[in-house]
Specification:
The protein is mainly alpha-helical. It has 9 helices and no strands.
Amino acid sequence: MFIEIFEFLQKGGYLIIPIAICSVLSLAVIIEKLISLRTKKIIVPEVKSVINSLTSEDDINLALSVCDQHKGVLSNLMKMVLQHKGTSYLAVRDELSDNGRQEVRVLEKGLVILETVAAVTPILGLLGTVVGMIKVFNVISVQGVGEASALSGGISEALITTAAGLTVGIPALIFYNYFSKKTEDLILDIENISNNLLKKIIEFRSSN
């Protein structure tokens, strides 16, 4: 079966090669993001729970210990806030914002590849269509329209590259939109937890 598929794709001409490379890159990113963007991996329940259960400064050491045990985006940001509990609110907020942007880059890693594949592969397919049709017209100009077998090669190349480009590009676009929305939701959840922690730190200071 794989041999038949390979032979079929070979008829698409040399433009099948970049489309195939794009498909491999796209699949690799999709698998990686399905694993790395799991909600429980980013919003670790233990970290979220210990942050929500903070009632006084005495609980901060416990929270830091939990953050050390569960490495990740949320843990890194919460640990930064907890370690700067004595710093001014504006300074902590600014540092949280700076660190947050760096952590967001981790969540968004690879999405630009999916976006590029989604945009490029249909264009490569269209280019394959143009190349295939040029070959068809060259055959017509030399041999006329009576050579059906000669014409079929160019037509086949045109259709195969178009189909291949769309087959790779459409899933890439779907997963890009899905992961972008997933990342946005995770960022909003992290912001909410961070803001709640900052409010608690301020309350602890005001009670002292």
